[in-house]
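Lab meeting, action items carried over

1. Structure of the two-component assembly. Owner: GW. Status: complete.
Input record:
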Amino acid sequence: MKVPLVEIAHARSGDKGDTANVGVIALDPRWYEALQKYVTRERVAEHFRGMIEGSVERFELPNLNALNFLLHRALDGGGTLSLKTDAQGKVFSTALLRLVIDVPDAEARRLNLPGAS
Amino acid sequence: MKSLVRVAAGQGFWGDDLDAPRRQVEGGPIDYLMLDYLAEVTMSILQKQKERDPTLGYARDFVGAIESILPALLERGVKVVANAGGVNPRACAEAVRSVAAKRGAKDKLRIGVVTGDDLLARLDDLIAHGHSLSNMETGEPLSSVRSRVLSANAYIGSEPIVEALSRGANIVITGRSTDTALTMAPLRYEFGWSSEAWDQLAAGIVAGHIIECGAQCSGGNCLYDWRSIPDLANVGYPLVEGRPDGSFVVTKHPNTGGRVSIPTVTEQLVYEMGDPHSYITPDVIADFSTINLSDDGKDRVLVSGIKGRPPTDKLKVSVAYRAGFKAIGTLVYSWPDALDKAQLADRILRERLDRMGLRFEKILTEFVGANATHGPLAGDHHDAPEVQLRFGVRGNDKVAVERFTREIAPLVLNGPPTVTGFAGGRPKVEEIVAYWPALIDKTVVKTKVDII
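Predicted assembly:
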């Protein structure tokens, strides 16, 4: 089934120079497994294609039920150089939450994901 | 030794709520008030102010903050640690002293002034001695922008703050200390943590990271269940109750708005996070993958289990340098076909700038209401009620940037229809002061503490 990330996670984003970071946190600890498995580095790089110029890094934080993504060359130079409205990457958080992941039905039921019956 | 030390955050950046420091001091028991004023670009703004007037160059809001909390400071023994000194900690201390003198309290203050982070006067010497101060992102040596450098400061750690406290300071003013050291240092001082108590030092750093952005960990800017967060008009700023073993509780004063919960704290933990296994500071490297959060009652989160390891032999340096000019102009187009109209205006503007032979390093167009923040992910917005054209240019040629600013208004009469929102006048040309992150050998930076 298709699972919109916004229904199973919350997020906050920020900047370090020209890099935006997005921390994605499972709304229910059980759902971290779905994040860990399906919100891959490749999937996120594909999601942001055209919006960022650099690579994507991913870190796992099972203790916080969270993943951290670094989106490199995402902010038109960052800080004061940037001409972007979101020069500090503050709302890359919800841009990532627009991602829709594919989870096998049986697994969605096992994890009790929203919409799974 | 105390078994519990309360450190409260009263300022998350220069420009934060002016009344928060007073509310933190008066709202309940605290031992320390921690005020973080410095963001990456703040030092350069302060450096410009100091160039105009050598008695300036610090966060002036701090002086007002001290004035507002002076009675509590003196009566209840609350101590203050702040990086309000900017590029002129000594002048900041003098300003605090004179405001205390006005209130007849000059003799009761012992102000610890931490200096040594400012490398500006030493730059040429450092470069000559082989410290390239290369940009951590691009690898370029600092010499390539040397003539345009405005400020250069090493991020310093907890040592000099601990020294100032141990010499009896009740107000400690630093320049570019790390945000997190402002919280960790009082805990380290009170609990006597050694310079190799890696786990405790790391815990102090995590405590600092959680509260350094003020209310951003206590309900502010919180996405999780945001509609249910109560009374943000009266949001409680956070405080940590630290314990000798390094564990701590994040909470806020009673009868305040906002919320402290596992989700609000987790959102702040991941904010501006790099590699979570290596949160590098001058004192210790903290491992955020070891943090354990648990519910400790209403508006209380217990943080424990944090592991740390020895730091590197480098300090981070923040250099600010002049990097050209920019200007951003906006116009608002209304329904119907608001986005199409704004897109046509964008094409016209680009053609006119091109015909005038104006060259920029970068032109960026955004359509606010359609794609400014989420780009192509935002979907189709051709039926939007209004769209703001936001057109920015950047380059080294100030004349070209200035010429651009005169090309927005004509579009109102000679471009696409149903346009408004130009009352703000011509866009302002801004000089860009950019941030250059670098590393330097720790041994080169010598901090100094004076008590005045």
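2. GW to write a short summary for the group page. Key points so far: Chain B touches chain A through 48 residues (CB under 8 Å). The mean pLDDT of chain B is 96.
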